[in-house]
Amino acid sequence: MERIEQFLSVEDGLRLRYCTLGTGADVVVIPGACWLNVDWEPLLPGRMLVFYDSRGRGGSDTVTDQTKLGLRLEVQDLEALRQHLGLHPFCLIGWAYLAAVVAHYTRACPEHVSRLLLIGALPLQRSLYTAKKEPEAATLRARAAARVDSAAEKQLKKMRQAGVPARDPMRYCRAYNRVYLPQRLGDPTAITRMRNDPCSFPNEWPENVQAFFRVLFSDFGNWNWRRDMAHISTPTLVIHGIEDTLRLAASQDWAATLQNARLLVMDGVGHFPWLDAPDRFFVAADQFLGGHWPIDAESAALGLF
């Protein structure tokens, strides 16, 4: 599949890496290129997919000035990309913390977004993210821990002791992901379906990702976005994997707060539903992006959750 990879310079001088796939009439914009652009090719027929890496992530410029990271800037970057490509209207997809980014963009620029798909979304409220004492949260953490290969984890420790992270950070990153990504999957062996290689980008090496999120969560503060998100009337599908380490209540909160949203709960899958259950995931995503609710998507307005 031909990928046209380019860079966009945004207002403060940073460059964002983006790539386009396909030439279909329907346009879908998806942040998180380095994690998704290869694995999400099944969405291509009839569409043009625009993947990009956020500032400080993937193949976009590394950010050394912490004042140049934050939710407001990520929303501005998405609008800069839209203007640069002349997109209107388009569908928008956000996974994990990027779900919050695309939702805030939709709140700010609803006229440009025709449909919104949120997957494993960061909770609307910090309290739902940090409720570690809740029984459900404890159960999810225990399940996640059980998916880690203890022998591989010990080998990873030996790599750290031998100085591999400094000497060969790409190799260490790949080993790190093989050990710890399976805890976010319903089936740990599904990691073998992953074709994207985020570790080819220094921004995605473990210590750099951890530093990025320390700054980003500092920017979020003690967040509660429910009042702002309640203004969104764009058709929105919220997908939640029941084996995700994020609580179901967080996705229910998104679906209940937005005006025209439905929740699709997927059994047996975690934070990467396209790896755990690619057939089910891409069928549901394709239906929604094509203008139809998946048959199992539930609506808060109908009192289904």
Question: What does this entry show, briefly?
Answer:
The chain has helices at residues 33-36, 71-85, 97-108, 126-129, 135-146, 150-161, 164-167, 169-180, 206-220, 226-229, 248-257, 273-276, 278-289; strands at 4-9, 15-21, 26-31, 47-52, 90-95, 113-119, 236-241, 261-266, 298-299. With 305 residues, it is an alpha/beta fold.
Key features of this structure:
9 strands; 305 residues; 13 helices; globular; alpha/beta; nine-stranded mixed beta sheet; single chain
Low-confidence stretches: none
Helical element count? 13
Strand content: 15-25%
Multimerization state: single chain
Structural class: alpha/beta
Helix content: 25-40%
Order of helices and strands: EEEHEHEHEHHHHHHHEHEHHE
Largest sheet, in brief, is: 9 strands, mixed
End-to-end separation = 40 Å
Provide the residue-averaged pLDDT.
Answer: 94
Tell me the Rg in angstroms: 19 Å
Count of individual beta strands: 9
Tell me the strand order in the biggest sheet. 1-2-4-3-5-6-7-8-9
What gross morphology would you assign?
A: globular
Describe the secondary-structure layout.
Elements: E1 4-9, E2 15-21, E3 26-31, H1 33-36, E4 47-52, H2 71-85, E5 90-95, H3 97-108, E6 113-119, H4 126-129, H5 135-146, H6 150-161, H7 164-167, H8 169-180, H9 206-220, H10 226-229, E7 236-241, H11 248-257, E8 261-266, H12 273-276, H13 278-289, E9 298-299
Parallel strand pairs: 3-4, 3-5, 5-6, 6-7, 7-8
Antiparallel strand pairs: 1-2, 2-4, 8-9
